[in-house]
Amino acid sequence: MGRFWRLVGAAVLALFSLVVLAQEEDDPVKEAEKQKKQLLEQSGGILPSDLYVEQGEQLFKTKRGPKNASLEACDFGRGPGKLEGVVGRLPRYFFDTRKVEDLDSRIRSCMIRLQGFQPQEIKRSDVVSIAFYIASLSNEQPVAVRPLMPQEKKLYQLGEQLFYLRAGPRDMGCATCHVSYVGKRAGVLPYSDILKDKRAASHWPAFRYSNDQAWTMADRIRACYSNLSMPAPDFYSEPIIALTLFMNVQASGAQMDLPGFIR
Amino acid sequence: MRRFYLPTLLLMLLGLASGQTSQSYINAELQRLIQAGGQNYANVLLKQAPDQALCSIHRNKLPAEVLGPFIEEQRKSIKYPADGKLLGDWKQGEPIFNTLARGNCFSCHVGSPLNIGGNVGPSLEKYGQRGTSEAIQKYTYEVIYNTWAYFPCTVMYRFGHGGLLKPEEITHVVAYLLDPASDFNTKPALKR
Questions:
Q1: Active site annotation includes A224
Q2: A13 has pLDDT over 50
Q3: Whole-number pLDDT of residue A6
């Protein structure tokens, strides 16, 4: 615990002294690298995402919940307790829940099945921290999501349909920006190229230095809807898993940068 | 059975007469997926309009045979202010253009002296150079009211059609863009 709070202290100090986005680089990837370097120099080598990883590791390994169990027996697709590289293979079909699950929903399923939590007891912030911990063990591993099971193929297809769907008072649709206006800016960041740029989906979960938030892909998808005044799909719901599956298949072959560090 | 048959046939004929067989994009499986996202989410997405369905089906690139009737339909939806005046008050247009939760125009267009513009849409810098002829007023008003009448399936909101801005509010934005006295035309545009 002592080490954890030292880390917290160092990171808080570093954040306070962070130069406020002066002289921004034009390329967001270069800009994020610059910010990361600055933050590392100021904090003595600790990033805010390290705190989430540390917190997530504690939550993962501590016996918790009505069943007083840790999450160490959770199977993320490579067998119980095998965590290395799993983020790059999700979403995938799981026989125990008979569902296609992404990182967030798999963590939640294990908290329910192994630890005995009721769904409404599960704190979103706990899931995010655990996601950061698991992500840290997939860093520099490849994304390799290939729908093979019929359930995966079906959900992929629905994810693709949802990606092109337009609705709402602002005619919102993912593809409208992330296919038609790739590289253009509405606001600070250019639209990422979901179909052709494998980096687009290979750095989630990520820490956002501009607003000091830890996001998983689910948070990212929900923000896309909210930014256009649309109600977002519920956390852990199938539309989020379907879109994530669609995007991660596009990102297959990329080397993951986890946890991501972005604006 | 017969009771349902007749109205369906009538609807289909109406659809054919208007040149658009109203194709739906959301099939039963996609509907079930969307419903799994929660009530609020489903309420909005499942209300997809036929024109939104067409853009979804054709992935925002309408084929030639769909294009004509589509534009025709969009044009029909445009309504004008009661007094017929399209050039409103530029000072009232300014906050609409420059506010995220209202017009949000600056996010995609360069031209505002108050906000750095984006490049999703074309630059509108010194838009007023076009003059204030009736034709240019009408074109500007209509593109804001329903941009799909000119640029089918584009990303820009259909402000009048979608109920985001009232006709009078659109005339104020038209004035912000066209009035020679408007800050939009007298002050330099902010750029990255």
A1: yes
A2: yes
A3: 63
